[in-house]
């Protein structure tokens, strides 16, 4: 595994003192602590819909042959694996800042003898790549966890080559109405309970609920993508609108 962190020109003290960095540390610890249960709970809590969501995310990416892909917030590498399943000639750089999550992913790579995915420990807020490197980028259930979404979208644009496409999969709050009420009941009560029973980390699942309701609606997020500079922005809701696929192209 490759570890690449750079500090945006700040010294270590300055870096440690930023609120964003503190939040990032907390999030990193949270994912590291649930890593052993992450895949199991994902499948269970979504009734295996998560597998279908990632498949749909990668299917919507239009890629050249032998593409170079960045999978950001790659976690246990499910999206990276789906990418090489659909595009066997792809090379994937899989970036996450949680080593335990990447280690779980590496076990899967070893089990499948998969050499085309390179796990890299790094922070999505300061990507250790030169400009214009990647043909495509995937980020599934990651953008919601990043303290400065605008800054990360800029980073994504920077490392995509011109014409490259970003594919984002995220939970979004359903539009108003009974669906929202029902979903809130699930998020605020059932989800933390199941999370506590299985992973003993109810906080992680409370955090999940809160971060989902605070994520912007689909049209507002598309607007953010356009404002940062993405073109041909489109979205597609899945599973009663609780998750959404977003695509945007670098001009
Ligand atoms: C909900 S998981 C998603 C994992 C994977 N993409 C999937 O589809 O299951 C979110 C991941 O984002 C990572 N993450 C959150 N903030 C990050 C950051 N600033 N830099 C790198 N990884 C980050 C976490 O460590 C975690 O593995």
Automatic annotation (TrEMBL):
EC number: 2.1.1.163
A single GO molecular function term of this UniProt record: demethylmenaquinone methyltransferase activity
Signal peptide interval: none
Catalytic reaction list: a 2-demethylmenaquinol + S-adenosyl-L-methionine = a menaquinol + S-adenosyl-L-homocysteine + H(+)
UniProt keyword list: Menaquinone biosynthesis, Methyltransferase, S-adenosyl-L-methionine, Transferase, Ubiquinone
Domain of life: Bacteria
Catalytic EC class: transferase
Pathway membership, UniProt: Quinol/quinone metabolism; menaquinone biosynthesis; menaquinol from 1,4-dihydroxy-2-naphthoate: step 2/2
Pfam families named in the record: Ubie_methyltran (PF01209)
Stored InterPro entries: SAM-dependent_MTases_sf, UbiE/COQ5_MeTrFase, UbiE/COQ5_MeTrFase_CS
Example GO BP: menaquinone biosynthetic process
List of residues binding S-adenosyl-L-methionine: 76, 96, 123-124
NCBIfam families given in the database record: MenG_MenH_UbiE (TIGR01934)
Function in brief: Methyltransferase required for the conversion of demethylmenaquinol (DMKH2) to menaquinol (MKH2).
Protein family (similarity comment): Belongs to the class I-like SAM-binding methyltransferase superfamily. MenG/UbiE family.
PANTHER family referenced in this protein's UniProt entry, alphabetically: 2-METHOXY-6-POLYPRENYL-1,4-BENZOQUINOL METHYLASE, MITOCHONDRIAL (PTHR43591:SF24), METHYLTRANSFERASE (PTHR43591)
Record-given protein name: Demethylmenaquinone methyltransferase
Organism in which the protein naturally occurs: Desulfobacca acetoxidans (strain ATCC 700848 / DSM 11109 / ASRB2)
Designated gene of the protein: menG
């Amino acid at each position: 595994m490759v570890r690449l962190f750079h500090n945006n020109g700040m010294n270590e003290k300055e870096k440690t003192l930023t609120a964003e960095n503190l939040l990032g540390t907390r999030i990193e610890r949270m994912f590291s602590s649930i890593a052993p249960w992450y895949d199991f709970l994902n499948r269970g809590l979504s009734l295996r819909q998560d597998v279908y969501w990632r498949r749909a995310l990668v299917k919507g990416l239009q890629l050249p042959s032998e593409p170079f892909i960045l999978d950001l917030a790659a976690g246990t590498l499910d999206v990276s694996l789906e990418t090489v399943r659909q595009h066997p000639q792809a090379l994937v750089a899989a970036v996450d800042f949680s080593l335990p999550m990447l280690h779980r992913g590496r076990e899967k790579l070893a089990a499948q003898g998969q050499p085309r995915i390179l796990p890299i420990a790094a922070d999505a807020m300061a990507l250790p790549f030169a400009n214009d490197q990647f043909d495509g980028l995937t980020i599934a259930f990651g953008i919601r966890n990043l303290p400065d979404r605008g800054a990360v979208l800029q980073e994504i644009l920077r490392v995509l080559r011109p014409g490259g496409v970003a594919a984002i999969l995220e939970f979004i709050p359903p539009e108003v109405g009974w669906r929202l009420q029902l979903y809130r009941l699930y998020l605020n009560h059932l989800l933390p309970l199941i999370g506590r029973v299985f992973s003993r980390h109810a906080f992680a699942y409370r955090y999940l609920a809160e971060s989902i309701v605070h994520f912007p609606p689909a049209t507002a997020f598309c607007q953010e993508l356009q404002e940062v500079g993405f073109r041909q922005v489109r979205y597609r809701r899945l599973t009663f609108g609780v998750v959404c696929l977003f695509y945007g192209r670098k001009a």
